[in-house]
Design brief:
Blueprint lengths: L1 H13 L15 H6 L5 H17 L3 H21 L7 H17 L6 H22 L5 H25 L2 H24 L1
Helix pairs in contact: 1-8, 3-4, 3-5, 3-7, 3-8, 4-6, 4-7, 5-6, 5-8
Length: about 190
């Protein structure tokens, strides 16, 4: 439970209108890819929420959902680098924060395939945003970097959820989900 409280305090401390998907900055190296997900609250909350939810549900979800997210995020990245245009990327990203927060708060336990499809849908938009902003010269190192950072943030969420034991821990996790949903709504309106 201590980790959940620390997570919630960290999120509260950094909720600002600064998002990682602003179309500026370095996007041409592995290091830039690693740091990119750490530059926006939208990334941090969504990536940790995928891990929280997967561990909350348990079983195969713990590895299938994060892997699905990373794989489909990379597909969205590739689609964007080939100039496949889609609408409403930023609203979809913000909505993913709210939706993932709500499924955690409501303790939704879908079949593994349905959870994978859901996180995959959100991941496509996140990856597309990465691809639009990427510099054409060094796409692969950048993509590898943000994929590794994303997987690490999923692992943080999994670790937090696995450390929350008993009824109090489960309640705290659900509270963290509600907090993430509220953070997503605040990002939408700011």
């Amino acid at each position: 439970m201590r980790f959940v409280l620390i997570f919630m305090l960290l999120i509260a401390a950094v909720v600002t209108p600064a998002f990682a998907h602003v179309g500026s900055g370095q996007t041409d190296s592995f290091a830039a890819g690693i740091t990119h997900p750490l530059n926006g609250i939208d990334h941090i909350v969504v990536m940790c929420a995928v891990g929280l939810w997967a561990a909350f549900v348990g079983g195969r979800s713990i590895w299938v959902w994060p892997m699905s997210f990373v794989a489909v995020m990379l597909a969205g990245f590739v689609a964007a680098t080939f100039r496949f245009e889609i609408s409403f990327v930023e609203p979809a990203i913000w909505s993913s924060i709210v939706a993932l927060g709500l499924v955690i708060a409501l303790a939704v336990r879908p079949p593994v395939w349905l959870g994978a499809a859901m996180v995959g849908c959100f991941a496509f938009f996140h990856g597309h945003a990465h691809g639009i902003e990427a510099a054409a010269s060094r796409l692969i190192p950048y993509a590898i970097g943000f994929a590794v950072a994303t997987a690490c943030l999923h692992a943080v969420g999994i670790g937090i959820a696995l450390s929350a034991r008993g009824a109090i821990g489960r309640t705290a996790l659900r509270g963290a989900g509600l907090f993430a949903a509220v953070a997503g709504i605040s990002l939408m309106v700011s």
